[in-house]
């Protein structure tokens, strides 16, 4: 049986703007995959993927504003990084899935095996649920052989998102299962040209302050209309290690939970960046105390 790749030879991610937890490797592998590998659009080669229950979706998407406001921008056990502010880039727009009108657009690039992606998706889903609706989310786990093994999360591989305020496309480039024919992760979503260009241009030291050259093309990556970006997780996945998906989700209404604090503080930071590109729409979200506090950090 082929050996399972680990974080030493593939892009697992790094915390955005925090400590240098180096977990990325061969950049040429990522670039080659972007160019030459024919991939499937469906996440059929993954461990543990199953539809996310309506109960879990509700717990992720109906968090009271008062909890976001109580959390603010900090966690008692982990540093939380805001998105990186980009300068001189034109606003990236795409058609809204709900109205068809051009709106600020977000692109996420990650992988199911990646523990940093697993952590960041919790914040991305909760933040974006304040602007619109996800369908087709699936449960998944990070690799059992990487750091923070089997971190519980969700996959964007088959998900869609609808909002009148923003457009969002999430791509999971790789599964969490190794293809024995290549000794590398099965491929899932193919990046369209625009996502390939943004990932290759912005997920680099030229746009991410303090990023070592060896860390470029880190997962997860997200551009917020090319005005803000995330490269790596905003908080350490160590907080989620060994905690069940149900326990994480059921605790999201508890502002005193360090896990909830890390997820929702990161979500407030993401929300504030999104509000910047939507001209503070919707107002009820963008003028809430937690988001206003986060906006001051951008």
Polypeptide structure, described:
The chain is of the alpha+beta class and 298 residues long. It has one domain (7-62, 79-237). It has helices at residues 27-36, 54-61, 65-71, 115-128, 193-202, 245-250, 258-277, 283-286, 289-295, and strands at residues 50-51, 84-85, 93-95, 102-110, 133-135, 138-141, 152-155, 160-162, 167-172, 174-179, 184-187, 221-224, 228-231. The strands form 4 sheets. Strands 2, 3, 4, 9, 12 and 13 form a 6-stranded mixed β-sheet that branches. A hairpin with a 3-residue loop joins β12 and β13. Mean pLDDT is 87; it is low at 1-10 and 16-44.
Provide keyphrases for this structure:
single chain; 298 residues; alpha+beta; six-stranded mixed sheet; 9 helices; 13 strands; globular; disordered N terminus
Rg to the nearest angstrom?
17 Å
User: Secondary-structure element order, as H and E?
Assistant: HEHHEEEHEEEEEEEHEEHHHH
Distance between the termini: 48 Å
Count up the domains.
Answer: 1
Tally of contiguous helical segments: 9
Protein topology:
Blueprint: H1 27-36, E1 50-51, H2 54-61, H3 65-71, E2 84-85, E3 93-95, E4 102-110, H4 115-128, E5 133-135, E6 138-141, E7 152-155, E8 160-162, E9 167-172, E10 174-179, E11 184-187, H5 193-202, E12 221-224, E13 228-231, H6 245-250, H7 258-277, H8 283-286, H9 289-295
Parallel strand pairs: 4-9
Antiparallel strand pairs: 1-6, 2-13, 3-4, 4-12, 5-8, 6-7, 10-11, 12-13
Helix pairs in contact: 4-7, 7-9
Task: Kindly summarize this structure in a few lines.
With 298 residues, the protein is α+β, with helices and mostly antiparallel strands.
């Amino acid at each position: 049986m082929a050996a399972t790749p680990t974080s030493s030879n593939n892009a697992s991610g790094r915390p955005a703007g925090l400590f240098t937890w180096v977990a990325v490797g061969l950049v040429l592998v990522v670039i080659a995959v972007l160019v030459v590998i024919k991939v499937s659009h469906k996440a059929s080669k993954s461990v543990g993927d199953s539809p996310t229950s309506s109960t879990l979706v509700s717990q992720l998407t109906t968090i009271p504003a008062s909890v976001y406001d109580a959390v603010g921008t900090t966690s008692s056990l982990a540093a939380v990084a805001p998105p990186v502010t980009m300068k001189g880039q034109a606003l990236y727009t795409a058609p809204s899935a709900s109205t068809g009108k051009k709106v600020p657009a977000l692109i996420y690039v990650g992988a199911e095996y990646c523990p940093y992606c697993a952590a960041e998706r919790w914040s991305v889903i909760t933040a974006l649920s304040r602007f619109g609706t996800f369908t087709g989310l699936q449960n998944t786990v990070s690799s059992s052989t990487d750091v923070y093994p089997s971190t519980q999360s969700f996959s964007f591989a088959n998900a869609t998102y609808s909002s009148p305020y923003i457009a969002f496309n999430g791509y999971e480039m790789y599964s969490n299962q190794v293809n024995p024919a290549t000794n590398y992760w099965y491929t899932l979503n193919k990046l369209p040209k625009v996502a390939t260009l943004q990932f290759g241009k912005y997920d680099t030291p030229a746009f991410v302050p303090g990023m070592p050259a060896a860390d470029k093309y880190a997962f997860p990556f997200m551009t917020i209309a090319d005005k803000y970006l995330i490269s790596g997780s905003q908080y350490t996945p160590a907080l989620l290690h060994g905690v069940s998906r149900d326990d994480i989700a059921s605790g999201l209404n508890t502002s005193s939970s360090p896990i909830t604090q890390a997820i929702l503080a990161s979500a407030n930071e993401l929300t504030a960046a999104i509000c910047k590109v939507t001209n503070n729409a919707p107002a009820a979200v963008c003028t809430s105390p937690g988001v206003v506090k986060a906006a001051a950090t951008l």
